[in-house]
Write a structure and sequence with these properties.
This protein has helices at residues 2-42, 47-57, 77-87, 91-103, 105-116, 122-132, 136-147, 170-175, 196-214, 217-226, 228-238, 243-246, 251-268, 283-288, 301-304, 310-319; strands spanning 180-182, 188-191, 291-294, 334-337, 344-345, 348-349. The chain is mainly α.
Length: 350
């Protein structure tokens, strides 16, 4: 019992010695902390000193001088198209196609006649280019590839049912926001695919949509011809996005795309290739010289334009190709009428 008490006292003595050593060891640290706090209170950091400290701990990124800044030059339309042609393996075909057309007077004259037709819709090509940021040379290239052989006629129709200067199917037209109105019998009486302004701008928006989707001008052009659904399937099957591989055995789309790309390059530099275009009468100027009447309900041409002559009716049909039945003009449609003595009054037109 006494032995145990003695041992306990010795343990207690050892513990006191241990804590005493810890306390002695902490004295310098406490003193340093007090001295640091006193120094900060007497000499608070100024904003300049804080910035100096920050600069020392976090090095500031060196800013380049104006002479060191390099502004990347955006490629021109021609450069971009030529670069894509190289990627898709069609450069030699494009060059050969251009050389073949230019070197042969017959094919050159034929192309000049086709491109001359675009001058009558110049305002619409500029508007389409402005609204989509597509180069007008590209828009002219695919429009003339679609209906150039028919003089960009509003009434051009393909075997597959594509209509108008842009040769659009109903699905593509509605996707582009073009109106197609049927009567109670299901007959189309109003079709904006036939309106040059609506068709050119609408088709450009449609092409732009898929060019942005594929992020590729060449593939976007191909999709306009073959359709995005078919193109997606072919790209999946071939496991590539290279044009030369995808369309190796698709002659129609291959020929169409090569024609559009080569034609776009020639239109952009038509003077370089010696192409002379004939200025056609402006369609927009012809419309501006008319009276624009907007229907509020279904109208009959004989009510809004009494006693029209044969020439009057021909002019109205020419300026309003989207209206397929002058006896059934839908509500909300703008009708371009020859300016005569007819002006609206409370009773209608006199």
């Amino acid at each position: 019992m006494a032995k145990n008490i003695k041992k306990s006292g010795q343990t207690e003595k050892e513990d006191r010695g241990f804590f005493k050593k810890i306390a002695i060891g902490l004295i310098p640290l406490i003193g340093t902390g007090i001295l640091t706090a006193y120094t900060i209170i007497k000499n608070p950091p100024t904003p300049q000193r804080e910035q100096t400290i920050q600069n020392q701990t976090i090095p500031q990124k060196e800013q380049p001088s104006p002479s060191q800044i390099v502004i990347k030059k955006q490629p021109t339309f021609q450069e971009e198209l030529k670069e894509l042609s190289e990627y898709h393996g069609i450069t030699s075909r494009i060059n050969n196609k251009i050389s073949t057309i230019i070197s042969n007077q017959y094919t050159k004259n034929a192309l000049e006649q086709i491109l001359s037709e675009t001058t009558k819709y110049e305002e619409y090509f500029r508007q389409a280019s402005s609204e989509t940021c597509l180069d007008s040379a590209l828009i002219k290239a695919y429009i003339t590839s679609e209906s150039g052989h028919k003089k960009l006629s509003p009434h051009a129709k393909s075997k597959k049912g594509a209509i108008g200067p842009a040769q659009m199917l109903i699905r593509a037209a509605k996707e582009s926001g073009l109106k197609i109105i049927c009567n109670k019998n299901g007959q189309i009486i109003y079709d904006e695919r036939r309106d040059p302004q609506k068709a050119i701008i609408g088709s450009a928006k449609y092409l732009k949509k898929y060019m942005d989707f594929y992020k590729d001008t060449v593939i976007g052009i191909a999709s306009y011809n073959i359709g995005p659904g078919n193109l997606n399937k072919m790209m999946k099957d071939k496991k590539t996005d290279r044009f030369s591989t995808i369309f190796e055995n698709v002659p129609e789309t291959k020929a169409y795309t090569l024609r559009v790309v080569s034609r776009a390059l020639m239109i952009k530099d038509h003077k370089k290739y010696g192409l002379n275009l004939e200025q056609k009468p402006s369609y927009e100027q012809q419309r501006n010289a008319t009276y624009a009447y907007k229907t509020r309900k279904e109208e009959n041409i004989h009510r809004i334009f009494p006693k029209p002559t044969k020439q009057d009716l021909e002019t109205i049909k020419h300026l309003n190709p989207a209206i397929l039945n002058l006896d059934q003009i839908p509500a909300g449609v703008t009708v371009y009428l020859p300016k005569k003595i007819y002006e609206p009054n409370k009773q209608g037109y006199r």
